[in-house]
Each structure stands twice: as C-alpha cells, then as structure tokens.
Amino acid sequence: MSVTRKYKVLFLCRDNSALGIIAEALLRELAGHRFDAFSAGPEPAARIHPLALAQLRRGISGRDLLSPKSWLEFTGEWAPRMDLVIALDESVNAHHVPAFPGAPSLRCWTVANPLGDGLSDDERVRLFDKMFWQIVRQVGAFIALPQYAAPPVRDMGALMAASASAAAPASTGMSTTDNDSPRAADSYASHPAASSASGATFTATLAAETTATQPSVVLSVD
C-alpha cells in the first residue's frame, strides 16, 4: 500500500504567540492527514497570547501541542525539511528569514495584526476575531488548491458552526459589518456547501470566494 507524503508547512510571525500559533492549529485540525504544520518566530514569546488561546477554544483540538518557538529550531541539520514557509507578519520578510534546510518556497499571507500598540481592549478583541477568521479562510483556500486536494480530516462547515456558536457568549456588544467578524462567521457556517457530506466541497467553495474577494493574497505554490 502506498503512503501519501505529507507536506511540511512552517508559519512565521514575530513572537509566535498568536498568528502563527492559530495558523498551525487550524492547518493541523483541518488537514492533518496531508500536512505537518509548524510555527515559529525570531523573537518567541514566553507563552501563547491569552486571546489566541480563547480563539483556539472554539472547537480546536490539540492545543497542548502548541507553544511559541524560535525559528532557529528549524534551521539546524536535523530540523524537518519544510516544503513551504508562510509569513504572517510584516516584520517577517525575505530579508530577515533565515536559510531553512531544503530551500522551501516562501509565501506571505496578509492578515490583521492584533498585537499592535495603542489598542483598546475592545479593539484588540475585535482584531483577534478578524485575524482568526482571515486565517480560517486562508487555510481553507490553501488546502483546496489542486496540488493538495483531498478530503479534509474535519469538515470545514462543522468547524465554522462550532466556532460561531462558541463566539456568541463572548460578544463585546460591538456592532460591526466587517466581513471577517464573528457575524460573518455565521454566514459561512450557514453556507449551503457547509452542510455537504464532504468537507472538500465547502473548502473548494471557500477558496473561490477568497480568491474573488482577496486578490492580494498569494495562494500559488512553487
């Protein structure tokens, strides 16, 4: 019986306390049978940001496997060879990224940064929500690319529904029409494709919508 090779993906953000952690958790949750997901950064924090952990309580398993890591852990001789490195933070770019073994392709995803200075508590909570749903959509589109096509481990619609339900009690009372807010999550959870027996149907639809609404996002892989 042949064994399908798993692609190794490393997500980068400055302190690896939020963006990269969430991306790693989502990729592992939705397509862990096709991908080995990792995350790291140049200045790893001592712990995962509490608001990132709050987002990951929305039906994400394996949270105990997550921790901030230095990207130097992935540069050694015995480090896993990545197929793709994805930068999520503007401070992490091609000029600063070290030479990872195997010369993996480098891509950038543009997502909200909830860790900026001068934010009120409500603004930070809102940006964490926005960032979470942006990464959900990015990961959904990514795993639906033809070169990675396969039924996901977990149905995307089920994750959306669980996440939207979990987010409701934590509402800050703010009224927003932002496309990446929890209110938008309700529309994704009720998407006709979300009730499909195959999660691949929903992720393919999600990919088409993401491509149409976010043309600046790079989704191709060398």
Please render the helix and strand layout as text:
Layout: E1 7-12, H1 19-31, E2 35-40, H2 50-56, E3 84-87, E4 105-108, H3 121-143, H4 156-167, H5 182-189, H6 199-213
Parallel strand pairs: 1-2, 1-3, 3-4
The second-level CATH architecture is 3-Layer(aba) Sandwich
- Give the % helix: 25-40%
Query: Approximately how much beta-strand content do the residues carry?
Result: 5-15%
Global shape? globular
What is the spatial order of strands in the main beta sheet? Answer: 2-1-3-4
What is the CATH T-level topology?
Rossmann fold
Q: According to CATH, what is the class? A: Alpha Beta
**Strand and helix order:** EHEHEEHHHH
Number of strands: 4
| CATH superfamily heading | Response regulator
Would you tell me the structural class of the helices and strands?
alpha/beta
- How many structural domains in the coordinates? 1
Largest sheet data: 4 strands, parallel
Distance N terminus to C terminus?
Answer: 28 Å
Average pLDDT, all residues: 74
The helix count comes to 6
**Unreliable stretches covering 5 or more consecutive residues:** 168-222
Overview of the molecule:
- It comes from Paraburkholderia ribeironis.
- This is Protein-tyrosine-phosphatase (Modular protein).
- InterPro entries: Ptyr_pPase, Ptyr_pPase_sf.
- Keywords: Arsenical resistance.
- The protein has 222 residues and is of the alpha/beta class.
- The protein has one domain: Response regulator (Rossmann fold).
- 35% of the residues lie in helices and 9% in strands.
- It has six helices and four strands; from the N terminus they run βαβαββαααα.
- It has a four-stranded parallel sheet with strand order 2-1-3-4, with helices on one face.
- α3 packs across α6 and α4 runs antiparallel to α5.
- The longest helix is centred in the middle third of the chain and has 23 residues.
- The chain is globular.
- It starts with 6 loop residues before the first strand and ends in a 9-residue tail after the last helix.
- The C terminus is likely disordered.
